[in-house]
Design a protein that fits this description.
alpha/beta; nine-stranded mixed sheet; two-stranded parallel sheet; 10 helices
Length: about 325
C-alpha cells in the first residue's frame, strides 16, 4: 500500500525538526463506506515529536484537528493533556494528530468514523508506523479510535476513549438533527453564516450543564423584549466565532450519528472515561460499552462541565490516562 502513496515536502510547524505537518494522498481506490468517492483524497497530519519513539494517535471533537499541543504561535486543542511531562508525555512518545475528513472543497458528503480510521491507517503506512502504542480519542475522536480498534486490531496496543460510546444516543441524535436542519434551512435562504452560528449555539447548550450555566450567568432580563440575557450573549459569541463550513458541519454531525462499532470485536486493552453529567454521551452507555469489551475498564467522574469535561477536567482525567498508557 505504501508504494501507492506519496508525501509532499513536509511543512515545519515550529523551529525544531520534530514538529511538522504532512499531507498524505490516499490511494486512488480509497472508497467511502457510503459508496461515494473522495474528490480530494488527502489527509493532513501533524507529527509532534520524534517518530522513532512509541507513537500515540490523538483525536478530539468535530472542531478539533491536527494541532494537538502548543507550538510557536499555535495553541493545541488538548494542550493540557499533551505536552512534555503531561498525561500524553511528549518526552516519551511521538503524537500524531490529524484533520478529519472532509478536507476543504471536498464533494463527498457521507463519511463514517470507519472511513476516518481507514484514512488514518493509510497515513500511518506512509509514515512507516506499523502499530500504535495507543490511540487516545475524545468525543468524535473517541468514536474514530473505537472504529480504528475494530478495523485494525493488530495495529493498536492500547485504546483510551473519553466521552464516546459505541453508538449515538437517540436523544443526542435528535439535537444534532435540529442543528443540521437549521443549517440546511440557512443554506436555502442564503444565510449560511447565521445558520452555522445558530447550530453551534444550540450545540454549546448540549456540551455543558445547566448547573454550570446557573453558576456562570445572571438571569436578570434586559430593558426590553428581545434584549439578550447573559447566557444568550455568551452563546451568540461562541456561535459567531465558529469558523466551520456548513457542508463540513453537516457531514461530521451526520458521521457522529451513523457511528457504530461492535464491542465484542475490540481486542485491545481499553480504558473508557465518562463524565457523569454528560448529556450527549451518557455515562451509562460508556459503562455498558466497557463491560462488553473483553479487556475494558471504565473510569467515571463527576464534573460541572458535562460533555466538555474532556477539555476542562485535565487535572482529573490526566492522571488516569497517563497511568493507563504507561502501565
Amino acid at each position: 500500500m505504501t508504494a501507492a502513496l506519496r508525501i509532499p515536502n513536509r511543512r515545519q510547524a515550529d523551529e525544531t525538526d520534530d514538529v511538522y505537518d504532512i499531507d498524505v494522498s490516499l490511494p486512488a481506490g480509497f472508497a467511502l463506506r457510503s459508496g461515494e468517492t473522495l474528490s480530494r483524497p488527502e489527509l493532513s497530519l501533524r507529527v509532534h515529536g520524534d517518530i522513532a519513539r512509541p507513537v500515540i494517535a490523538v483525536a478530539g471533537g468535530v472542531s478539533a484537528g491536527r494541532v494537538v499541543a502548543d507550538f510557536d504561535r499555535e495553541r493545541g486543542w488538548w494542550r493540557d493533556i499533551v505536552h512534555a511531562g503531561g498525561a500524553v508525555d511528549l518526552e516519551k512518545f511521538c503524537v500524531v494528530g490529524f484533520d478529519f475528513l472532509p478536507g476543504a472543497g471536498e464533494m463527498a458528503r457521507t463519511i463514517s468514523t470507519r472511513d476516518q480510521a481507514r484514512s488514518l491507517a493509510c497515513a500511518l503506512d506512509v509514515l512507516d508506523i506499523g502499530a500504535l502504542k495507543a490511540f487516545v480519542g475524545a468525543s468524535y475522536g473517541g468514536m474514530v479510535a473505537l472504529a480504528f480498534a475494530e478495523e485494525f486490531p493488530d495495529r493498536i496496543e492500547k485504546l483510551c476513549v473519553v466521552s464516546a460510546a459505541d453508538r449515538a444516543h437517540p436523544a443526542a441524535t435528535a439535537l444534532r438533527g435540529i442543528q443540521r436542519r437549521i443549517i440546511n434551512f440557512s443554506v436555502r435562504h442564503d444565510a449560511v453564516k447565521e445558520g452555522v452560528s445558530l447550530a453551534r449555539q444550540l450545540a454549546m447548550t448540549t456540551y455543558r450543564t445547566a448547573e454550570e450555566f446557573a453558576v456562570r450567568f445572571d438571569a436578570s432580563p434586559g430593558a426590553a423584549a428581545g434584549d439578550p440575557y447573559d447566557v444568550c450573549s455568551y452563546l451568540i459569541a461562541r456561535g459567531d466565532a465558529y469558523p466551520m463550513a456548513a457542508e463540513r458541519y453537516v457531514t461530521l454531525s451526520d458521521s457522529v450519528d451513523r457511528h457504530y462499532v461492535d464491542a465484542a470485536k475490540i481486542a485491545a486493552p481499553a480504558l473508557f472515561v465518562a463524565s457523569l453529567s454528560d448529556r450527549l454521551v451518557p455515562a451509562a452507555d460508556i459503562a455498558r460499552l466497557a463491560r462488553n469489551v473483553a479487556s475494558g475498564r471504565c473510569f467515571e467522574f463527576q464534573s460541572l462541565y458535562g460533555h466538555d469535561a474532556f477539555l476542562k477536567e485535565s487535572a482529573i482525567i490526566g492522571g488516569v490516562i497517563k497511568a493507563f498508557i504507561e502501565e
